Amino acid sequence: MANLQELAQLFKELDDQLVSCMRCGMCQAVCPVFAQTGREADVTRGKLALLDGLAREMLTDAAGVNEKLNRCLMCGTCQSNCPSGVKIMDIFLKARAIMTGYFGLSKTKQAIFHGMLANPRLFNVLTGMGATFQGLFTKKVDDMLGSSCARFNAPLVGDRHFNTLAATPLHKIVPELDTPAGASGIRVAFFTGCVIDKIFPHVGEAALKVLEKKGVGVFLPSNQGCCGIPALSSGDGATFDKLVALNLQRFTTAEFDYLLTTCATCTSTIKELWPRMFKGDPALSADIKVLADKTMDISQFLVDILEVKEAAATSGRNVTYHDPCHLKNSLGITSQPRTMIKAAGCTFKEMREAGSCCGCGGSFNVAHYDLSKKIGTRKAENIIDSGTDTLATSCPACMLHITDMLSRKKAGMEVKHIIELYADSMKNQG
Amino acid sequence: MNESIIKEFTAIVGDENVMTSETDRHTYSYDAAVLDTAMPSLVVRPDNSEALGKTVKLCNDNGLPLTVRGAGTNLSGGTIPHPGGVVVLTNGLNRILEINEEDLYAVVEPGVITATFAAEAAACGLFYPPDPGSQTVSTLGGNVAENAGGLRGLKYGVTKDYVMGVDFWDVNGNLIKTGSRTVKCVSGYNLAGLMVGSEGTLGVFDKLILKLIPPPKSSKSMMAIFSSMKAASETVSAIIASRIIPATLEIMDNFTIRTVENFRHAGLPTEAAALLLIEVDGHPGQVEEEAALVEQICRQHGASELKVASDAAERDVIWQARRDALPALAKLKPTCVLEDATVPRSKIPAMIQALDEISREFQLTIGTFGHAGDGNLHPTILTDRRDAKEWQRVEKGIDEIFKRALELGGTLSGEHGIGLAKAKYLVLETNRGTLDYCRRMKSVLDPKNILNPGKIIG
Ligand SMILES: Cc1cc2nc3c(=O)[nH]c(=O)nc-3n(C[C@H](O)[C@H](O)[C@H](O)COP(=O)(O)OP(=O)(O)OC[C@H]3O[C@@H](n4cnc5c(N)ncnc54)[C@H](O)[C@@H]3O)c2cc1C
Ligand code: SF4
Ligand code: SF4
Ligand code: SF4
Question: Given a cut of 90, is residue A363 above it in pLDDT?
Fold first, then answer.
């Protein structure tokens, strides 16, 4: 399609954002990929310089730049620590879209994004078959899931130790829900997300149980779609737009006060990226904004709104917590999940580098598995060194990756979503 | 670069440590200075001492310009390579070889990160004071080669005060040993001293012997609020004149205060014309005494308010404000030129006056903060480099800053180095003879002029 000059022209449109990087190099302290490789092209400053080089027509190897651009977890750690406030994630997402426009989307991704993700029913049917015939269908389903969620591992690819697809996904257990506000006087909508639905439905169930006990009404519409991050981070804006519109249509049919998720990635995508990156029907943008403003992580809702408080340690569990990048870096949520762990009666112990990325970065994880494994190994060591028996976190994608890493180390620790711990403690109280 | 030379480099450092692609090379064409980029033809990453020495020799044998690069955070263009030259990375040489608790020194490779080293020393109950703002990424090799300073310079000195010895490679691949592990050493020329601030132009550091000291037992921080920069800067002079040397004594002007407050919302007094941030440390008794005296001097010189930190959290608020200065300013405009012209500390009031005049004369937005206690201000010019007209005024303003600092008996650079950015001004501070002397020395030590050509002496 376009030639190099036209490509440069497209990158020039990022100039206003690119120019705000002062090349101070402070991102070297935080980028998990750079920590492993020590190569400037892997750190933010290097990637931004490469985009700048393309824009100024100093470089001829666009494919080379594209390759470097993709060696990134999209974890946002650099952005939340950048002294110059560079809108790094925006730049990277836009750059990926430009690159995809230029090089085209790979055949596999085309099939997945256009054929399945954008069509939740078909996606559900296929993964459903996968669950029934684990092994028989796995290869296909793996390919599909592996490159679907941006932070979603490819189960069973190579020698991975993996959680397999759940026998019954959440949308089969709870097809839909529409309960009125109870004692709390609050009604929320619940966005499930693919990983919760298909791999950790019990996390979704735990959340619904907690909400019920707290007297919170729940609206859970059927046929929800993926939040769209996999398509967006692969530069497929059209599929992203489709998914946003589809979800919007599912969630605007009822009244509610907050939109909750148990997936850090979904929360940050809906809250941060839906309003900024949606390029579809402009008439929808007002509704998108309203929905984004209502969106919250489940722990944030329970602690900030319902004022759940720490409790005495009675569960006998020793828990450490991993900060999912998309909660900590994108939304600055770090204290609420910790409060939830203590509220669940667990003894909490901070680990080293709790806020550093676990190394799972969706298609990054698939394309650069070795690097991803190295980053994850460091995480696993920090977790084990904490001397606890349970690792809690707030993102199912992190749960997957960390489970893989811990089981490689034969750590014998449990991996739990914070809401599971809290639901358990409520159960014990009867 | 021709294939056979690349093969030779590969034989020395290993396949995975040679980078030839356009994309990789482009990412080593810049550093933190606001200057044009220059593309190297090869990037290598030796991961042991021997490989480093052989790399230097191979460059010399082939007349290839060589630029050593630590973290690439210097602000003067010291790691912008000679076009077509070789960039040698030191991040494969990042071992702390020894921390000697009996004799209070450490031996490190040049690629060790400053903050990592300081933390390791602290874990042994020792203190490595030089703390440049970039310490979480900067390398000790880069610190020595730039003679980096930091917030504690006033009392504890700068990097040069902690360099006991440097082993370095000369262009012929000989390892030159300088300094020693002893407190005193007068064996031969002070070559280690020559290496400090040499910006990669005289030798390539292989190992550094660094001094460690016992940490202070206690400290006290405070923030004093002033209604004029003049009063604040006179207070600085008065504190020093009364024979108190605080560990840190920093100043911030109103523009910087407002910007930082806007950024962090920590409750800084936005109406204040100036802030002094002060920390005294040492033995508890001495700290109490000095803190009381500093307080008194501040009040005598018109401080309208004084906040003394009573716990760690309050102390943190004070120093966070200082740490925020650069990031907060940097966010205002696309380009941020951080200068570091330095004057004798008694001339701080005059320099501040001069900066004020310069910002008006050239219509520039300048935020001023910095190490008032040691005369090292950081006037920070906020601009957009793409605006050619304004950029001309910026360049003129910078010229004027240097001129005024030199007139006040100061220096071009307190800690950021000369590099490419200030090479043309060096003669103004020294004289033709001095520059010739340096060039003659360089031409003998590095006859083919391969060691970071163009830096410092042009
Ligand atoms: C945000 C920010 C804050 C800063 N704050 C301060 C501050 O407070 N005080 C201060 O003094 N500076 C400061 N600096 C400047 C900079 O960080 C220092 O100059 C630092 O010492 C550079 O270290 P580096 O590892 O990045 O070196 P580089 O930039 O990689 O290199 C600097 C010079 O050292 C040479 N060099 C590196 N390694 C070797 C070696 N092994 N042998 C020979 N030569 C070598 C290089 O050739 C180059 O000339 C700051 C910079 C930034 C971006
Ligand atoms: S920290 Fe921010 S401004 Fe500094 S180099 Fe990295 S991206 Fe650029
Ligand atoms: S998003 Fe994460 S992996 Fe990507 S450049 Fe930033 S810190 Fe590195
Ligand atoms: S972030 Fe959540 S909804 Fe989005 S793709 Fe991943 S699992 Fe699915």
Answer: no
Range of the domain at B405: 333-424
pLDDT at B185 > cutoff 80: yes
Place of tokens 């007349």: B63
To test the ligand 1 pocket, which listed residue (B44, B55, B95, B146) has its Cβ within 8 A of the most ligand atoms? B146
CATH 3.40.50.1860 describes domain A170-304:
yes
With cut-offs at 50, 70 and 90, classify the pLDDT of residue B262.
confident
pTM: 0.88
User: Taking an 8 Å Cβ-Cβ cutoff, which residues of chain A contact chain B?
Assistant: 16, 19-20, 22-26, 28-29, 38-41, 45-46, 49-50, 53, 58-61, 64-65, 67-68, 83-85
To the nearest whole Å, the CA of B39 is away from the closest chain A CA by 10
CA-nearest residue, atom 45 of ligand 1: B200
B147 and B233 both lie in a single domain: no
DSSP A284: G
Model pLDDT for residues B195-208, shown as the tens digit of each residue: 999 999 999 999 99
pLDDT grade, residue A150 (50/70/90)?
A: very low
Name the residue among B161, B149, B344, B315 with its Cα closest to residue B236.
Answer: B344
Please indicate, yes or no, if residue B136 is contained in any of the structural domains. yes
Nearest to A29 among B22, B137, B334 (CB): B137
Strands (E) located in B128-235 = 163-169, 175-177, 204-211, 218-226
Average pLDDT of chain A is: 86
- Kindly tell me if the per-residue pLDDT of A430 is higher than 80: no
